[in-house]
Design a protein that fits this description.
CATH superfamily of the largest domain: Histidine kinase-like ATPase, C-terminal domain
Structural class: alpha+beta
Number of strands: 17
Number of helices: 15
Mean pLDDT: 76
Strand order of the largest sheet: 2-1-5-4-3
Shape: flat
CATH architecture of the largest domain: 2-Layer Sandwich
CATH topology of the largest domain: Heat Shock Protein 90
Helix content: 40-55%
CATH class of the largest domain: Alpha Beta
Length: about 675
């Protein structure tokens, strides 16, 4: 049996080596033949393309193909430089050879010019000594106007490829035989040493074990797998020797397993007790909870009520337990019972529900309760836990807050009415004071004592300042009551800015401040009230002067930009469409003390002044002077009436580092939006 296995392994190895090497050599020969053919085809195409280019250059001069001379010599030159090329032929439009490297190719078999620009064919050529086979590559020859007038053919003989392959076959066969002999010898050596010898050793050991020699130990063998097999056979022998002991050990293990099962049973009993205690703890927590809790079963009956629920509803637990949900709601005189039933049904489905309801306690008294309902699972049953919280006091507080808010709104309206009334009542006596003061200081100056004249001048200045405050109060009152009328006209915003700067040039000089103006002259005119826009700019620039230290810098610039803005849809609905509209932006930047972030929205409120009110000053542009707090409010009102926006940007208030502020004024070119807007996009840069 041993020899039979050895022979089979040897024969099988020989067949595998022979087939593998033969197949590999055959594929190498086929690949070599294919690569050689492709290489010669590419060389033929390259030569044909070069010949075609030479011919087409002559055709471009107006000469006919058949009248060209020297093409046969050109073909022979190609043949001399490429020994593997068999022929070079130029045919006319009908496929008739005109020029050839060899006269025997005058009977060229191709008779058609149709086909692609580059064509390859395998053809045979009848000769007296027999038929020769060639690989032909041809390219079309075209005139300058694109007309096909012939083909340039370059070909090589099949015998060139065959000769190349024949040499390769002879070389491969020699190497194949040599490699087969060497490989087969190595295989035979490997089989004898590393297969048959370990198998013989293992067979001898197994026979001894089968005869009862469990103490036998098979020695080490050279092959890892056979050595592992020998080790396992040794282990099997030891296992057979100790099987009685293993059976006893298994019996003891079964006994220990039985003891562990008993211990697991005892643990399960303890877990059951712990679960019962947890359930009692849940009931205890529920009983002592600060909120009223009611548990509804899957049959919509009351299963559990805690102590707080008894106090909350005014009913004892025994009066509520077991009642259907509907009956309990009727007992509590709860309104909209179907809605509350839906809340409990949704909660049973897994949703967390919350709602307010009004109920009547047993002892009397209406209460507002906030109920939260959620589902809990007890075994296979789904319960609904409802938590009731008394929010009657909270609702009273909210009602009081709403009443206080309404009172504050009423007081605000009274303040606005008082503002209009006070400004109207102060205007007449101020006019009289200013008139008499002007009369004394001008017409009667020579009749009045100089000291009195100085007093009257101070009175006139104070009256003028008070008149300005009254005018601001009138403007604020008219803006609040929407009675301020605008005289709309075409306004050149850049000219208004220049006029404002010129008007306040004295204050810039007095405070030694630098002013820079950057105006975009391409911006279009804006529709607005020039007087009110001038007032707007004066207030903003004056504010910048007041809160910028001496020697500071103020920069005023203008630009145009397109922004998205909502317009009425025209369908009567509240929805608004978003369209791009042209806006003009004015920015006033200073290097002043800055504004806190929490004050940046409130500075546009009436009578709001940032900082300490004790810093109030009568100086118009004194540093950090506080006024009546109406300038920015009037500015915002004017911007709003023009359909624009105004806001301020600042990193914060710092009177030592001077972070500065930037006021942005955004004005639409057409305050009243219409369907036909002028296209100013070409003016933007």
């Amino acid at each position: 049996m041993k020899m039979t296995l050895e022979k089979r392994i040897t024969l099988f190895s020989f067949l595998i080596l022979f087939v593998t090497m033969f197949a590999g050599s055959g594929m190498d020969i086929m690949a070599l033949q294919r690569d050689h053919v492709n290489s010669l085809n590419l060389r033929s195409q390259s030569l044909a393309t070069a010949l075609k280019a030479s011919i087409e250059k002559v055709l471009n001069l107006g000469l006919e193909l058949k009248d060209m001379g020297g093409l046969s010599e050109k073909c022979r030159e190609i043949m001399e430089g490429n020994p593997d090329i068999a022929y070079c032929v130029v045919t006319d439009a009908n496929g008739v050879p005109i020029f050839a490297s060899d006269p025997r190719f005058q009977n060229f078999p191709i008779r058609s010019i149709a086909g692609p620009d580059v064509a390859r064919n395998r053809m045979d050529l009848k000769e007296p000594r027999g038929t020769s086979y060639f690989y032909d590559t041809s390219v079309l020859i075209k005139t300058p106007d694109g007309r096909n007038v012939g083909r340039a053919h370059i070909g090589f003989a099949e015998a060139v490829v065959t000769e190349k392959v024949r040499g390769m076959i002879f070389k491969n066969l020699s190497l194949l035989i040599l490699a087969l002999i060497l490989s087969f010898s190595l295989v035979v050596f490997f089989v004898k040493r590393y297969v048959m010898r370990p198998i013989s050793t293992l067979l001898t050991g197994v026979k001894q074990i089968s005869e009862g020699g469990f103490d036998i130990q098979i020695g080490e063998v050279d092959v890892f797998e056979f050595n592992e097999l020998a080790r396992n056979v040794n282990l099997m022998a030891r296992f057979l020797k100790n099987r009685d002991e293993e059976i006893k050990n298994n019996y003891q293990e079964m006994q220990r397993t039985l003891d562990e099962l008993h211990d697991s049973y005892l643990k399960l009993e303890r877990l059951s007790s712990d679960l019962e205690r947890s359930e009692n703890l849940y009931k205890s927590l529920m009983e002592d909870a600060s909120d009223a809790i009611v548990v509804i079963g899957s049959d919509e009956s009351v299963r559990m009520v805690n102590k707080m629920a008894e106090e909350f509803f005014g009913y004892e637990a025994k009066e509520l337990l077991g009642l259907p949900l509907t009956k309990m709601l009727l007992l509590l005189n709860i309104g909209n019972i179907p809605k509350l039933q839906r809340i409990f049904q949704n909660a049973a489905g897994g949703a967390h529900m919350a709602d307010e309801m009004q109920l009547l306690k047993k002892g009397g008294g209406i209460m507002v309760a906030l109920v939260h309902a959620s589902s809990i699972r007890s075994g296979d049953e789904v319960l609904v836990q409802a938590i009731f919280r008394d929010v009657t006091r909270e609702r009273e507080i909210i009602a009081n807050l709403e009443k206080s808010s309404a009172d504050l709104a009423r007081l605000n309206r009274m303040k606005d009415s008082f503002l209009g009334l006070a400004s109207h009542e102060l205007k007449t006596p101020l006019t009289v004071i200013m008139g008499y003061s002007e009369l004394i200081t001008s017409d009667m100056a020579d009749k009045v004592d100089p000291t009195v004249l100085e007093m009257v001048s101070n009175i006139a200045n104070a009256a003028a300042r008070l008149d300005n405050i009254v005018k601001d109060m009138v403007d604020v009152s008219m803006i609040d009551e929407k009675r301020l009328q605008l005289k709309m006209e075409e306004v050149q915003l850049n000219r208004l800015i220049e006029a404002t700067v010129n008007e306040m040039r004295f204050f810039f000089s007095m405070r030694k401040q630098e002013v820079e103006v950057h105006l975009d002259e391409s911006i279009p005119p804006v529709r607005g009230d020039s007087v009110r826009l001038m007032q707007l700019l004066s207030n903003i620039v004056g504010n910048a002067i007041k809160f910028t230290p001496d020697g500071g810098k103020i920069t005023i610039s203008s630009s145009a930009k397109y922004l998205l803005r909502g317009i009425p849809s025209g369908t009567g609905s509240s929805e608004q469409a978003k369209e791009h509209h042209l806006f003009l932006e004015i920015t006033v930047a200073d290097t002043g003390i800055g504004i806190d972030r929490e004050d940046q929205l409130r500075i546009f409120d009436k009578f709001y002044e940032v900082g300490n009110i004790q810093e109030h000053s009568s100086g118009k542009v004194a540093f950090k002077a506080k006024g009546a707090g109406l300038g920015l409010s009037i500015a915002k009102g004017i911007v709003d009436m023009h359909g624009g926006e105004i806001w301020v940007e600042s990193t914060g208030y710092n009177p030592e580092r001077f972070p500065g502020s930037i006021f942005h004024i955004l004005l639409p070119v057409n305050p009243v939006l219409s369907e036909t807007l002028t296209d100013y996009a070409r003016l933007l840069r």
